[in-house]
Design brief:
The chain is of the alpha/beta class. The chain has nine helices and 13 strands. The protein has a seven-stranded parallel β-sheet with strand order 3-2-1-4-5-7-11, with helices on both faces.
Length: about 300
């Protein structure tokens, strides 16, 4: 017999969902969920006014007592999607490792058992740099502090005995994330031939919503990325063509942080359909908005 998760039905009372670290992705997730099925609370470090579909709580998740107090509301499902306060080993340890440790400890102390924990991680846990294909079964031997700390946090969740899944996002882009477009426009883009992988923010949220709505337990780990790994030079060349920029490359820019092709077959096998199958589909609207808002001479 197939085990089933007790996902809420429309005839039942709404499921209580907690989003820890509820920034851009968390807010997009909340907006995509059926409000008749979910009662959603988001934790942020700073005060944030409530939205019609999302109640915010200001909480320092680095404070074990504070997060225990929030968890006492007894949430049915929890999504952990943190952003470090700083890009350093200490920042990643605090945002990911400490948060997961406090979360699991508090749930055990309160004797609570949510039906599902989702931890948002990153493909930084993979160190492959030879252009090879990587999937969920590939070796994880990160050399940088970000991947190491994320892998440490993943293990806390996976060893917690709660039903859980790890989602490893590739490079996230979308509205408000115009770094690559600006690099091209300012002539600071990289001519790297290395493969890059990305996923649109709307697909990040969409896939998380898919996992919450599954009627059967999710896989232990998913790579979440679009269907088109592509060399960086191809990406920036296409963006430059859309912007009408001729001189967009810089010899001073080094973008050689990785070189792998990420497989999304397990993600697609869950039934999820990408909204943006490749970078062209995702960047097209962003470029239109960027061009419309660009000031003359910039």
């Amino acid at each position: 017999m197939t085990n089933k998760l007790s996902a809420p039905q429309k005839s039942q009372s709404p499921e209580k969902l907690l989003i820890i670290g509820c920034g851009d992705i968390g807010q997009r997730l909340a907006s995509q969920l059926d409000q008749s099925r979910y009662q959603i609370t988001g934790i942020r470090r700073q005060y944030q006014p409530d939205l019609p579909y999302l109640r915010y709580i200001s909480c320092n998740v680095g404070d074990a007592k504070a997060i225990k107090q929030v968890l006492a509301e007894n949430f049915d499902s929890i999504v952990i999607t943190m952003t470090p306060a700083e890009r350093s080993d200490a920042g990643y340890e605090q945002a990911y490792v400490r948060t997961c440790d406090h979360l699991v400890s508090a749930l055990n102390e309160l004797q609570l058992k949510p039906r599902l924990l989702i931890f948002v991680s990153s493909t930084a846990v993979y160190a492959q740099d030879d252009g090879s294909w990587v999937d969920e079964s590939s070796t994880t031997e990160p050399t940088g502090f970000s991947g190491q700390r994320l892998l440490e946090a993943e293990q806390i969740i996976r060893n917690s005995n709660f039903t859980s899944t790890i989602v490893r996002f590739s490079g996230i882009y979308g509205p408000g994330r115009n770094r690559l477009i600006e690099q091209v426009n300012q002539g600071r883009a990289s001519a790297s031939p290395h493969y890059t992988n990305r996923i649109h923010a709307d697909d990040c949220a969409g896939f998380l919503a898919q996992l919450l709505n599954l009627q059967t337990p999710p896989a232990p780990v998913y790579i979440a990325t679009d269907s088109t790994p592509v060399p960086m030079i191809e990406v920036v060349s296409w963006i430059a063509a859309q912007l009408g920029v001729e001189k967009f490359l810089s010899d001073d820019v080094n973008n050689e942080r990785g070189n792998k092709q990420l497989s999304n077959q397990l993600m697609l096998g869950s039934g999820y359909q990408l909204r943006y199958n490749d970078f062209r589909a995702g960047y097209a609207g962003m470029i239109r908005e960027y061009t419309a808002n660009k000031k003359p001479g910039t």
